[in-house]
Amino acid sequence: MALILALLENQSLRRQRVFRDRVQPLDILHDEELISRYRLPRHCIVELCETMSNDLQRPSMRSHALPVSTQVLVALRYYATGSMQRVAGDLHGISQPSVSRCVSAVSASLTRLASTYIKFPTDEATQRHVMNEFYKTAAFPNVLGCVDGTQIAILAPSSNEQVYVCRKGFHSLNVQAICDAKLRFMNIVAKYPGSAHDAFIWRNCAVHHHLQQHTTSGVQKWLLGDSGYPLSQFVMTPVTHPSSVAENNYNKKHSQTRNAIERAFGVLKMRFRCLHYTGGCLQSPPSSCTKIITACAVLHNICISNSVPAPEIDMAQLEVAADSSMEPACDDIHSCGTQTRRRLIDRFRASRTDAS
Known about the structure:
- 39% of the residues are buried.
- The chain is an alpha/beta fold.
- The protein is elongated, with a radius of gyration of 24 Å.
- It folds into two domains: 93 residues; 204 residues, no CATH class.
- Helix 4 crosses helix 6.
- The chain is built from 16 helices and five strands.
């Protein structure tokens, strides 16, 4: 009995907080090591800390408040590895709940900055530059971007769980993105559940509305999408059942050019393993997962702008990204998409099937 009373008395005592030594990787690691562990070189991490300081600076009278640099590094480590938060906490000398708060705060801050780093080209000069870069790939003209969707696995949510089950049978968010020829994201939509069709997400996104309102009788410009998207004046899709050399040439050049978005998804997931299937799934509510995905897209663009070496792409992952669409969408018979595609097919009629 005395032993039991002693144990109960010890449990009732308030445990004293223990502050572990917090390692500062920026002080001891060179750029190659930082990129390997955090995906960004020192100057990019420092710039991020400065940019997000107002969001992350904590108004606390305590002497052990987490500095901005620690919050950013902890979140970057989580994005890069997708490992359990406790592991990231042990590495940086903080608790698992602190890691969770860091990831949440940094993701929210990067999401607020998304419009600065993820922009769809609207001015003529930028659009012309993007189209020229795509033309170098396979001589497909007037391409403003490539659009596709990919499934990001998440933990089963507590409400409306069934709508998050994708056709592959796991809980996910169906993430739509548009990229340029350099694999830079120009638009990303990460709020729809896994059961949402690619065509539905496309029809309800801002870029679709923008292209609808700014389609003119001048030089036509379009995005390239797979058969999960509706053919229209500003979205070119492959011919479902090609029956001529010209249609096969068109499909080949379309595939070679549209491959940019599949590679962009591949690089994104290999660079930030929290989004990759080998990392399990995002262990947060859907609203938080949306911010994490957007944050990783922002960081992906920062990496490209700063010429950070891309990781080697897992070809199996490219197949997942390419297979993200569902049943083919019906062509829009009220648009001139069919006529536009026919003119493009005629343009490739004389092309050799083995042309690059």
